[in-house]
Every structure is written in C-alpha cells, then in structure tokens.
UniProtKB/TrEMBL annotation:
Protein name: Glutamate racemase
Protein task: Provides the (R)-glutamate required for cell wall biosynthesis.
Family per similarity comment: Belongs to the aspartate/glutamate racemases family.
Source species of the chain: Albidovulum marisflavi
Primary enzyme class: isomerase
Residues at which substrate binds: 7-8, 39-40, 71-72, 195-196
Keywords: Cell shape, Cell wall biogenesis/degradation, Isomerase, Peptidoglycan synthesis
Record InterPro entries: Asp/Glu/hydantoin_racemase, Asp/Glu_race, Asp/Glu_racemase_AS_1, Glu_race
PANTHER family registered for this protein in UniProt: GLUTAMATE RACEMASE
EC number(s) recorded for this UniProt protein: 5.1.1.3
Gene3D superfamilies: 3.40.50.1860
Pathway(s) this gene product operates in, as recorded in its UniProt entry: Cell wall biogenesis; peptidoglycan biosynthesis
Catalytic activity line of the entry: L-glutamate = D-glutamate
Length: 270
C-alpha cells in the first residue's frame, strides 16, 4: 500500500512530513534525485526524462501512485507524462492541484466554466523552470478569471537551502520579494511554488508583510492526497516498507535530511 514521493532534492521532505502525519498507516517511499538537483535550471526534455526515470524506480518499490513533490517537475513534465507515458494502472499526480483548489475555492473535479474569485492579485515565487513553463497560470486560467499573476523566478534559493546556508537563503528571499513588489506593489496572496520554500516561509512572510495571505503546499497536498486515496483506494500499491532513496551520496544526503527535518533520516542508494 506504499505511495511514492519524488523530488529533485530535499524540498519534497516538507511534503513527506505532512502526508505522513495525515496518513500514518500508509508507508511512503521517498526518492530524491540529488545527483541531478536542482531541476529549476534544466530544460523541459531533461526534466521529463529524469522525472520518468525516478517514477519508474518508485514503481519498482510497489508505489502505483507517485506524487511529484517538485513544482518544477509538475510544471515541466507532468502533463506530458500523463498524456503520453503513464499506464492506466498507475497514477502520477502533481502539487499544483491542491494549491489551485485552495486559491479558487473549488474542487479539482469541478469542470464548470472559469469564474470570478475573491483574490485578484497573486504573487508566484518559483524556480526559473516553473516560471518559464507558465503551468500555474495555465491551470489557474481553467478555473478563474480576472486574476493577475506576477511570477518571480527565485534563482539561488533552492541551492542555498540544499547547502544549509540559511542566511544566504533569507537574503535571496528578501531580494526576490523586493523585485516582485516593484512590479506588483500590493499582492493579496503569495504562492510559494516550490516545496523547498516552506523552510523559508518565515522569511517570505516577513518580507511580504502581514496583509498578504501566503499559500504553502505541504499541508494542502496532504489533505488532497488523503481525500484522493479515500476515493481511489485501488492506487495504494503493493509496497509495505517506508524508505528513502537517493541518486546522490547516501551519507551526505542523510546528514542534510536529518538537519532538514530535525529527526534522524537514513537514505539508501537508489
């Protein structure tokens, strides 16, 4: 009954932590493609090929359902995967869906025409590849009208987080927020469009100010996954063991992950 969680690095651990709390009876297999991180500076074909390879590895672990806990992979590869590559007996889901559900206050299965929503000015903070894909704006446009999205590519933030340099990461966050505010001085909501960014949520909130509603993904994904598995229990795979896999150096990644989640984490070579 295992579920796979994939990320290019350590950011998806924020999602893993939330879904494990929401579904304590479900084993989760986490795959970090640390050897090829970050994905945010790669082209779409490269991201697609790396993501497919990771998902296939999770299928081998008995994970019929895989969550792409990576906004870059969700933006640049997911639609192509679902349309051309994923077999009928498997599911690969992304992290945009729960975020847009929360922002538009409508369920994903609601296929009624786009309508006005309360929030009109939205700031999106994401990796350069996610911003370039315009996937968030495309999915939002299916469900809402009259929403102005200003996207800020946050170069360097993921690298600083992965390297454990919190001071640099906070400085970069302030710089990116200032850059966005020059273009959109008064956003009503902010989307933290990378699963690394919850670790810097305090810095985003401080830079944005208390009047801006900040949407972070981990808890929204957990709630959505719990609902999905209640409706589609057939996609609980055959795996029975929780584990952590990496394409990087297992000891080095384990040390960083332990620091990341503030509890012991042991990665194995993928």
């Amino acid at each position: 009954m295992a579920v796979g969680i994939f990320d290019s690095g350590l950011g998806g651990l924020t999602v893993l932590d939330a879904v494990a709390r929401a579904l304590p009876e479900v084993p989760f297999v986490y795959f970090g493609d640390n050897a090829h991180a970050p994905y945010g500076v790669r082209d779409a074909d490269d991201i697609f090929n790396l993501t497919c390879a990771a998902v296939e590895r999770l299928w081998l672990e008995g994970c019929d359902l895989v969550i792409l806990a990576c906004n870059t992979a969700s933006a640049a590869a997911l639609r192509r995967m679902q349309e051309t590559w994923v077999p009928d007996d498997k599911r690969v889901l992304g992290v945009f869906v729960p975020l847009i559900e929360a922002l538009t206050e409508r369920q994903w299965g609601d296929n009624s025409p786009p309508r006005e929503v309360a929030v009109k000015h939205v700031a999106l903070f994401a990796t350069p590849a996610t911003v370039a894909s315009r996937a968030f704006q495309r999915e939002l446009a299916y469900r809402a009208i009259g929403v102005d999205v200003e996207a800020q590519p946050c170069g360097g933030v993921v690298d600083a987080i992965e390297q454990g340099d919190e001071i640099l990461a906070e400085a970069l966050v302030r710089s990116h927020v200032e850059a966005l505010k020059r273009r959109m001085p008064m956003p009503e909501a902010a989307i933290l469009g990378c699963t690394h960014y919850p670790l810097m949520e305090h810095a985003f909130r401080a830079a944005l100010g208390p009047e801006v509603a900040v949407f972070s993904q981990a808890n929204l994904v957990a709630e959505s996954l719990k609902d999905y598995l209640n409706r589609r229990p057939e996609f609980l795979g055959s795996g029975r063991v929780s584990k952590f896999l990496t394409t990087g150096d297992p000891q080095r990644v384990s040390d960083k992950a332990t620091q990341f989640l503030r509890r012991p984490i042991r990665f194995e070579a993928a």
